[in-house]
Amino acid sequence: MKKDSIEVDGKRYVTTKVMAGFWGVSQRTVSRYCHDGLVIGAFKDSSNRYLIPAGARKPLSKNVIEKVLWLVIQLKNTPSFEIDYSTTEIKPAHLASAFRYLADLMLITAPGDYPTEEIPYRVRLTQKGMDFIQGKKGPGKDWKATINRILQLLPFLEILIRYILNL
Predict the structure, then answer these.
(1) Residue 95: its pLDDT value, please?
(2) pLDDT of 143 strictly over 70
(3) Pairing state of beta strands 5-8 and 43-44?
(4) Cβ contact 39:56 at 8 Å
(5) How many C-beta atoms lie closer than 10 Å to residue 34's C-beta?
(6) What is the mean pLDDT of residues 108-131?
(7) Please, which residues have CB within 8 angstroms of residue 48's CB and are 6 or more apart in sequence?
(8) How high is the pLDDT of residue 91?
(9) Short-list 36, 32, 40, CA closest to 137
């Protein structure tokens, strides 16, 4: 039986099953968040399951992220545009943390130390952010995933070689 949590380099990670309970979504939804790169610090272990940092917050959905990124573009094109927060899924109290999250995903530039109400007007989309709203994977994403997978499997390769060579 597999454990629902594990410690790696002094940090606690939990499975999608555990996070699904915390976030109130299905285990499949948590896996999709991880697969889509929306959970910062999540990775696949040797048994091909996602491990998520224990303190990770529920990510914004792709739909919400897309709306926010389009909003940033609208604000750049029409600075006089005013945001109606009653129509967004992000409440004004959570605005700063939502934009920090998007910056951590490298979809926008860092929000800086501006007052919360100015942040949407001050940030800019990165190339990754533009690719996100255009539905592109971005250059090298598959290559990076392959490298990460190889690095995760290296310890097991060493064990296999020792076993084969009877060391």
Answers:
(1) 82
(2) no
(3) unpaired
(4) yes
(5) 22
(6) 87
(7) none
(8) 76
(9) 36
pLDDT greater than 90 at residue 53: yes
Task: Using the structure block, give the residue that is written with the tokens 């915390």.
Answer: 22
Rg, Å, the chain Cα set: 19
**Helices of type H across the chain:** 16-23, 27-35, 62-77, 95-104, 119-122, 127-133, 141-165
Say what percent of the chain tops pLDDT 70: 87
Give the chain's count of helices (H) and strands (E). Answer: 7, 4
pLDDT exceeds cutoff 70 at 14: yes
Handedness of CA 43, 132, 64, 82 (dihedral sign): positive
CB 43 within 8 A of CB 50: yes
- Phi first, then psi: give them for residue 8, nearest 5 degrees: -130, 120
Provide the CB-side half-sphere exposure for 18 (13 A, CA).
Answer: 18
Amino acid (1-letter code) at residue 57: R
Task: Note the pLDDT of residue 107.
Answer: 92
Residue 19: C-alpha distances to residues 27, 37, 101 (Å):
8, 15, 18
